[in-house]
Amino acid sequence: MDKGLLKIESLSVNIYGKEILRNISMEINKGEQWMIVGGAGAGKTVLAHTLAGNHAFRGRIEFPDFHKRSYGSSVVVVDQQHRFHDLQNQSNFYYQQRYNSFDAEATMTVSEAISVFEENGHGDFSKKELLETFQLDSILQEPLIQLSNGENKRLQILKAILSFPYLLVLDEPFTGLDADGRHFLDGLLSKLSASGQYMLLLSSRLHIPDCFNRYGSYKTEN
Question: What domains can you pick out in the chain, each with its CATH number?
């Protein structure tokens, strides 16, 4: 019998003296795509970055089969709000901020943002094929700060996929998208699931993409 994909036991996280996560346990098995719903302040983002190794914690987090892979990352998080640097890798821009012509000239393009990734892409798909699937091939020369919400979200997911993640964690991926954008992202996630990519979706919405077959919820404790 295959081992599980992810096992969490009695996970607790304390940040600056405040307990954000308390005694969380769950297991993700192969063949399962999980969606966890929680309101604002429930700790979804902290959970995502704890799985990615960015927070100290008590308890256990195990990836039973990750050691069998000779490539890629264990967990890659696509954040709700994206920041990026200018061409000198100095200034931080929030994606939602108002921009002017100087900002557009100072920020890198889509092509420059993905130039660090190899051309062989992910699995059976080359980077070129993934750009077409994500419908980003026609905007390669666009500055990042001028992308729409949907284009930016697709770019962030593409970059995550090109890192060959064992588990892709999506934190509120539908925030800021209109109905067409949500529909497109639904289809994109289904394609990723069919390709064998495991995902954990963290959301405050009850919108459930078709490819997710396991669900959980939690809330903060007063």
Answer: 6-217 (3.40.50.300)
